[in-house]
Amino acid sequence: LTTCDANMPSAPGIRNRADWEALRGHFRADEPTRFPDHWDVDNWAAKVARWKNRDHVLQLRGPSMIGAIKEMMGFAEYCIMLYEDRALIEEIMETQTQLALDILGRAFTEVDFDVFHFWEDIAYCNGPILSPEMFEQIAVPRYKRLTNFAKSLGVEVCSVDSDGDIRKLIP
């Protein structure tokens, strides 16, 4: 039997601004592994060719505005950070958003994706982990920028997956 403490990050992650500064440099659009053209097998060009004649729905996953940051920090630390250093949370979200905007143009131009999808585990059975007002302030503007960009490049469907009851977050 294996157990996991939901309050602890599943791997070493971000616990403070210094941790974020140490990781921030990896959020670069020019990172070679973003589009693995150098791989011998299943490189970006091979994927693009394979996807052109597909007979299935193809989705591209966008950045998680809340869920992934919560996972990197651990739930308790994330909640504390929202209160004590909300600017750090927003800085991480903005960095992820800008990285996505910097690299998505190539992906959407070279591949006809059917869906632009976001993963967020931001709710439990009794509702979201943050207030609708805070969600509207810190997440919605970034989602709008990303979905508007995707739609401007021809993507017709944008979706979000979350566990729990997110109805309070839906306008």
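[next item in queue]
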Amino acid sequence: GSNAAWRAGYTGEGVTVVVIDTGYSTHEEITWDSSERITSTGEITDDALDNYNGHGTSVSGIIGAAAGNALGGAGIAPGCSMRMIRVTDYNSSTGRTTANTYAEAVAIGRAAVYYDADIINLSLGGYSYSEYLESVIEGAYKSGTLVVCAAGNDGIGSDVYPASYKGAVAV
């Protein structure tokens, strides 16, 4: 597990991880080197706060929460450099957050090129295929960026995207 990896020197130091999700909430064990929001029109703003469900913060904690501070659990790579890109909006009538394919694609390209991400994490998904989004993920993969995507957890048995795209690693 994580303790054996840390003893062997694998703490995430020198690795840049970009989390593309619901944004973040302030947390004493998580440090983001930068955060931003990409809207459905591709506009980049500094509004990356998650006021809805905390999903992006939870995912970030699993990846990079501080280790050895006696405050709680540690992330698997507490030494990594972590950035947050929010691509979701909250729908008050359904009580759900939704992501936009175009915003996701812009975020993936920005993470791979502008931030030179080693790893991009997308813990979001749906059932609609997008050739455009698949080409962006495949391009990030071909440039040397590992794109990790949620395989889904609802038991439907259908392909879940972006996890089913070429170049994505489904977890």
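[queue empty]
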